[in-house]
Write a structure and sequence with these properties.
Blueprint lengths: L38 E4 L2 E4 L18 H11 L6 H12 L2 H4 L2 H37 L6 H8 L2 H34 L6 H16 L2 H30 L12 H4 L11 H19 L16 H30 L18 H8 L5 H33 L17 H11 L8 H12 L4 H22 L14 H18 L12 H8 L1 H16 L11 H15 L12 H9 L1
Antiparallel strand pairs: 1-2
Helix pairs in contact: 2-8, 2-11, 2-13, 4-10, 4-11, 4-16, 4-17, 5-6, 5-16, 6-7, 6-13, 6-15, 6-16, 6-19, 7-13, 7-14, 8-11, 8-13, 16-17
């Protein structure tokens, strides 16, 4: 494998050229006159960029690269192998997993069937604000690392550094945690007789191999995994409704029996209405982590063909699919199992505690546990692949900005940042800590340090969008120039940001109540906050960065580049034809 040389063709072209060997260092700049940027070569035409003005206070001057130079490096080093079909499934593959298949019973146990449904519905609205904010910003600036790089431009370089390294750290640890989860799931069939190494080594080889492959291979693998998840979700929802309506021979109609007794809400910690509200709130904070991963579809934006159209379409469809699937699944689970069933306590640890499995067993249906277990194993592998993609692309973006060693800019001839993948592969061997009980306890504590990173990431996405709209207003730029915009996001982003921050600071509220102190829960709920703050303040002090004034955010260059890329991408481009009837539904699931 060889390191590729940066290409001086702007990012966003429909067909990426092949890379040649050489050093992955940026081309030297030249400044023909004072206050004029170094000249970049675009289509063999000299173009002056005001972004790199020597006297500019733009935050990008804290690094040697400008936005245009970074795009050029990405265009040369990374390949555009992902389509809108892949992006849609990436978001689904990252967010539908054990939280849906195994963990919904815990939500019903804590908040009751209606409390759980309302909790997931509220978080679904927050996800809507996050997804649409992400889509609007990423369609304008489709860069590797997505909202991490957006934060550097729109807010403060120190914020991009803090959010970026928090994501890298979290993903470095999440992959071995998924491997450990697979070891536990395999024991459902094998018992304790199988050596975990027999599972760990093939898992590492497969995950590392996919990470090293052309990004389209990753997209196809995740597409298949997501399709399996969707089919299982649809099957379990239909099966649950059949069981509830007495469609299985020998069973009676359940209906809304469990909504009446033991009730639609559960009192949590306190009594009365306050206790029922706390139950709903506890479900809502837990639902955040079930939806985690929806933001991953934009991480490889620079490797996406025609991101101006693909990302908005993917955002809309991923949001609709996930909210509908989760909403229906929570509703059906609330119909199938009473909230006071003791088997739901701690639900999510094994397949045997899945509410769908409990309902199927009560109806006398065999084979469901093994089916769910098999799909959950693919979910764990899918989550590991997602973490590998997100983590390596964020690390690549940090290196591009001078916030990580330049060695991580090296890519293969087919556009994979192989040094980033190798680092993540080394950390996969932490999964061997599962062979020692004491070591695995320490390992899970490390994993929990970044459990709140989901809300930190969502907050960053919403803040980026708010800053973009405010900067456009300050600079007199109409929102009509945005590649994709919805008028109502101006209001939903601030509301979503407030909700994310409130949930972030109250997610561990139960540990502060009498007799419920839990050190592990406290760590998982709050320790990520000082970690991110320390990284932010440390980089701000080290590099003397500041929050970028709204009138100095380089929006004009971003718009010019987006409009130029659009003219190139639409040459010979055929608009997507709308389907009708049942083919439209199939297309909605597939594409």
């Amino acid at each position: 494998m060889t390191a590729s040389t940066p290409n001086l063709k702007p990012a966003g072209y429909g067909t990426a050229s092949s890379s040649s060997s050489g050093s992955s260092t940026p081309q030297p700049s030249r400044s023909p006159k004072q206050n004029i940027a170094p000249v970049s070569i675009i289509n063999n035409t000299d173009v002056e960029s005001p972004l790199l003005s020597p006297k500019s206070n733009n935050p990008l001057l804290s690094n040697p690269q400008s936005l245009s130079q970074e795009h050029q490096i990405e265009s040369r080093s990374l390949q555009k192998g992902l389509s809108q079909r892949h992006l849609s499934m990436l978001g689904i593959a990252g967010s539908i997993g054990t939280g849906l298949f195994l963990g919904l019973g815990g939500a019903v146990s804590t908040g009751g069937p209606l409390g759980a449904l309302l909790g997931y519905a509220v978080i679904g609205l927050v996800v809507c604000s996050v997804q649409f904010a992400l889509g609007e910003v990423t369609a304008l600036m489709p860069v590797t690392g997505s909202f991490v790089r957006h934060a550097e431009v729109l807010v403060d370089p120190a914020m991009g550094f803090a959010i970026g390294w928090n994501l890298v750290y979290g993903n470095l640890l999440s992959i071995p945690s998924e491997i450990v989860a697979v070891c536990v799931l395999v024991k459902f069939w094998t018992g304790d007789g199988l050596n975990p190494a027999a599972v760990i080594l093939p898992f590492i080889a497969l995950t590392g191999g996919i990470g090293m492959a052309f990004v389209r291979v990753f997209g196809e693998v995740e597409f298949v995994f997501a399709l399996l998840k969707i089919l299982l979700v649809v099957f379990l929802i239909v099966l649950g409704l059949v069981i509830n309506l007495g469609g299985v021979p020998g069973t009676e109609v359940i209906g809304f029996r469990y909504w009446r007794d033991p009730g639609s809400f559960v009192e949590y910690i306190a009594q009365g209405d306050w206790g029922r509200f706390l139950g709903f709130w506890a479900v809502m904070t837990g639902a955040v982590f079930s939806f985690a991963g929806v933001e991953s579809l934009a991480m490889a934006a620079a490797e996406t063909r025609n991101p101006r159209e693909a990302i908005p379409r993917a955002v809309k469809r991923v949001f609709a699919r996930i909210v509908i699937f989760y909403g229906l699944a929570v509703f059906v689970v609330g119909l199938l199992v009473p909230s006071n069933d003791e088997r739901l306590k701690g639900s999510g640890d094994t397949v045997a505690q899945s509410p769908f499995v409990l309902a199927a067993a009560a109806a006398g249906i065999k084979g469901i546990p093994s089916l769910v277990n098999a799909i959950v194993i693919t979910s764990a592998w899918s989550a590991a692949n997602q973490s590998l993609l997100a983590g390596t692309r964020v690390l690549y973006g940090l290196a591009l900005k001078g916030q990580a060693p330049k060695i991580f800019l090296r890519t293969t001839s087919w556009g994979t940042p192989y040094m980033c993948v190798l680092l993540f592969t080394v950390f996969m061997f932490l999964s061997f800590l599962s062979l020692s009980e004491n070591a695995i306890s320490v390992f899970w504590w490390l994993v929990m340090l970044t459990a709140a990173g989901v809300l930190v990431s969502w907050s960053s996405i919403l803040l980026n969008h708010i800053r973009l709209l405010k900067a456009m207003k300050k600079q007199g730029i109409s929102t009509d120039r945005l590649p994709w915009h919805n008028w109502w996001t101006e209001y939903t982003s601030p509301v979503g940001l407030v909700m994310c921050l409130v949930i972030l600071f109250t997610s561990g509220f139960s540990v502060f109540t009498t007799g419920r102190w839990d050190a592990a829960k406290f760590v998982s709920s709050y320790l990520d906050i000082p970690i991110v703050l320390a990284a932010y303040l440390g980089w701000k002090f080290f590099r003397k960065t500041s929050i970028t004034p709204l009138d100095q955010i380089p929006l004009e260059e971003a718009f010019e580049q987006a409009e130029e890329n659009l003219s190139v991408q639409t040459q010979g481009f055929q608009p997507t034809k709308k389907t009708r009837g049942w083919t439209r539904f199939v297309s909605w699931i597939w594409d």
